Amino acid sequence: MTGFDELRLDGVRRRFGGQDALAGLSLTIRRGEFIALLGPSGCGKSTALNCLAGLLPLSEGSIWQDGARLDTLPPEKRGFGMVFQSYALFPHLSVRKNIAFGLQMRRLPRDEVRRRTDQALSLVRLEEHAKKLPGQLSGGQQQRVAIARAVVLEPSLVLMDEPLSNLDAKLRLEMRTEIRRLHQTLGLTTVYVTHDQEEALSLADRLVVLRDGRVEQIGTPEDLHERPANRHVADFMGYRNLLPMKVKAVHGPVVAVEGSGLTLEGTAVGPLSPGDDVVAGIRPEDLHEGGSGVPVTVEVVEYQGRELAVEARTQSGDAVHLRAATRPAPGDQITVTAAPARVLVFPS
Ligand SMILES: Nc1ncnc2c1ncn2[C@@H]1O[C@H](COP(=O)(O)OP(=O)(O)OP(=O)(O)O)[C@@H](O)[C@H]1O
Ligand SMILES: [Mg+2]
């Protein structure tokens, strides 16, 4: 199958025994896009990917490739490539044969199989390992074989389900760059499943945040990072301080809030009125030690290279997380402030 301009998921729903694993995903994927499906364990990421791949029939909804209906086609007719968390390589075939397998199945001429396999080997930098069996490779190398095996077929869409989760931290970073590089060089369209928000933010053009089978937000990394739509997305995007508070006053988009031992000004996310119960979301790096701020007591200080991560307690006993440039001692009283633009106030 050749490429497409867009792939449209229209109310894609999948139930298991009366329970929604995916409760209506609508999304248009444009050619060349890198989409990340992000969310905690059990939120429906793999279900969404498997529906797209054709490995799971839909309970409701439809999938369209340009004008043509796709969800009624079997997986092999969709022309997609898949990379799984478990690499699913053939253990008895060499690296080269693993990569060439799909091309041979398509009965391509021998020269072309060789040329494209060589190219794929070099793309994932495994030329020197071509003759080895998967069992003789490291985890990262095996994962690269799995990726090469998928992209060698020049699929119109590459689907990856947590492809890096079996790798150690350093290799994960390397492979992350590798995947983005391949996506760009080969002009791929990619849907990538992960529960790691950093991975999703760094790789994707757009992210789909799922929770309990529902879409919480779809947007660019900047959208999600700067303007999470609700407290659940905020929680996922590193707003580690999510403090229950009450609205004291509303001045346009700026709201004064109080609670959890803090008095702050923040930016309203949605309409709010005085007296409303809210959750104030603040990233640790946006909560600073400051002269005229709110007093808190330092409890735990962690060295993090450039900065120190501090957990402190407000006078009402609520924990807050912040960053400090100089090392405070446990038991120290410090004051904290945050810029109103960096405090997001969500209805609770
Ligand atoms: N074959 C199945 N039979 C019954 N329930 C299933 C099946 N597959 C998935 N589910 C349920 O559907 C929900 C979503 O599962 P899914 O595998 O899509 O989650 P996920 O987001 O990929 O999670 P993880 O990050 O743990 O892989 C879960 O509650 C899961 O238990
Ligand atoms: Mg999964």
Automatic annotation (TrEMBL):
Ranges for domain ABC transporter: 7-237
One annotated GO molecular function: ATP binding
Key words, A-Z: ATP-binding, Nucleotide-binding, Transport
InterPro entries: AAA+_ATPase, ABC_SmlMolc_Importer, ABC_transporter-like_ATP-bd, ABC_transporter-like_CS, Mo/tungstate-bd_C_term_dom, NA-bd_OB-fold, P-loop_NTPase, Transp-assoc_OB_typ2
Domain of life: Bacteria
Annotated signal sequence range: none
UniProt protein name: ABC transporter ATP-binding protein
Upper lineage: Bacteria, Bacillati, Actinomycetota, Actinomycetes, Micromonosporales
